[in-house]
């Protein structure tokens, strides 16, 4: 103890301030903002992915399909391909309705798989099963399957997600998919436009696998982030080769092919459920992130629910996207069903950021 007293007597006031104020403050700041620091420095340790080869997208309602196919460098078929739309479903009842209504005229079979477990192993109700009456319009074309969760605590959420995608492959076979049928692979909230799917089912010599570049929205169609959503894809099915996946599978991507509306929910409780349930639940670093009042405030501000910096690969892009997303007041070129039923889905349209509390 005497040695410690001697050491302390030799320390001046500035050193005390450094040791007992500045150092703890720095440690606390790193604890709170460490993820932001990591994301901001991302360009130093990770290179951007290889650029896609963008295919220009031509469309006008008054232009013939033969002309549209020719503009893309493709031929036109004598009859259209069959189209299968396959999704893993969690709890997105509203956005699924918008999706299926948008695609309905050109879909041969809707294929939906639901689990009683989230990717993170949290038990969940069979939301689609209990709301199936809302989808009577699709019932004649619906292949519905369910799968039991494994509920393994501490397991990487992407393992459960991969297991469910394998089960979806099997459900597609049961639904009757065959070679050269079109298969849409995308999350529920990644919605290809109707005319995009019609183009791909009528045109010959389209790529075997083609990603779709979608406009990227957050919370509603009021907050346009960018046009860089790319995970949605369309495949010409090949027996024994095509596997349902949600990662990059080709370098070719069709421009302006639809909409990705992430976290586009009606109820605050749905936002909180997804924050805890989806594969990136580790982003909920503090319990107050799940506070309903905070969630509502963040939605109306167009800010980030997880208080994160943009996931970009250059400092210019990171700095350019920092802060809330600017409000958009355009509802042009959105899914037609959404506008036809604007009263029911006003929470998805500009100027309606307030959510229901249930």
TrEMBL record:
Pfam families: Glyco_transf_17 (PF04724). Keywords: Membrane, Transmembrane, Transmembrane helix. GO terms for biological process: N-acetylglucosamine metabolic process. InterPro entries: Glyco_trans_17 (IPR006813). It comes from the Eukaryota. The chain crosses the membrane at residues 16-34. The keyword Ubl conjugation does not apply. One of its GO terms (molecular function) is beta-1,4-mannosylglycoprotein 4-beta-N-acetylglucosaminyltransferase activity. One of its GO terms (cellular component) is membrane. The keyword Membrane applies. PANTHER family: BETA-1,4-MANNOSYL-GLYCOPROTEIN 4-BETA-N-ACETYLGLUCOSAMINYLTRANSFERASE (PTHR12224:SF0), BETA-1,4-MANNOSYL-GLYCOPROTEIN BETA-1,4-N-ACETYLGLUCOSAMINYL-TRANSFERASE (PTHR12224). This is Phototropic-responsive NPH3 family protein. It comes from Hibiscus syriacus.
């Amino acid at each position: 103890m005497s040695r410690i007293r001697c050491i302390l007597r030799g320390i001046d006031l500035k050193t005390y301030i450094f040791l007992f104020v500045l150092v703890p403050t720095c440690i606390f700041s790193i604890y709170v903002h460490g993820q932001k620091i990591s994301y901001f420095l991302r360009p130093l340790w990770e290179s951007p992915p290889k650029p896609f080869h963008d295919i220009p997208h031509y469309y006008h309602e008054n232009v013939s399909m033969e002309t549209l196919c020719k503009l893309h460098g493709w031929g036109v078929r004598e009859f259209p391909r069959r189209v299968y739309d396959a999704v893993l479903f969690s709890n997105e009842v509203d956005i699924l309705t918008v999706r299926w209504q948008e695609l309905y005229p050109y879909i041969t079979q809707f294929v939906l798989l639901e689990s009683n477990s989230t990717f993170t192993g949290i038990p969940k109700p069979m939301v689609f099963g209990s709301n199936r009456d809302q989808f009577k319009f699709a019932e004649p074309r619906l292949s519905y399957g369910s799968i039991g969760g494994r509920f393994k605590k501490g397991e990487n959420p992407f393992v459960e997600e991969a297991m469910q995608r394998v089960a979806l492959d099997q459900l597609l076979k049961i639904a009757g998919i065959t070679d050269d049928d079109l298969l849409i692979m995308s999350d529920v909230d990644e919605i290809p436009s109707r005319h995009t799917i019609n183009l791909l089912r009528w045109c010959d010599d389209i790529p075997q696998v083609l990603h779709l570049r979608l406009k990227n929205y957050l919370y509603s169609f009021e907050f346009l982030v960018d046009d860089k959503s790319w995970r949605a894809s369309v495949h010409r099915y090949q027996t024994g080769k095509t596997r349902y996946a949600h990662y990059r599978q080709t370098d070719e991507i069709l421009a302006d092919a639809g909409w990705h509306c992430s976290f586009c929910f009606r109820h605050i409780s749905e936002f909180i459920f997804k924050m805890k349930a989806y594969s990136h639940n580790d982003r909920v670093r503090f319990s107050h992130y799940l506070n309903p009042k905070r969630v509502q405030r963040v939605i109306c501000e167009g800010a980030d629910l997880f208080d994160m910096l943009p996931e970009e690969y250059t400092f210019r892009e990171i700095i350019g996207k920092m802060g809330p997303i600017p409000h958009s007041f355009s509802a042009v070129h959105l899914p037609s069903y959404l506008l036809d039923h604007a009263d029911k889905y006003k929470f998805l349209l500009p100027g309606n950021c307030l959510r229901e509390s249930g």
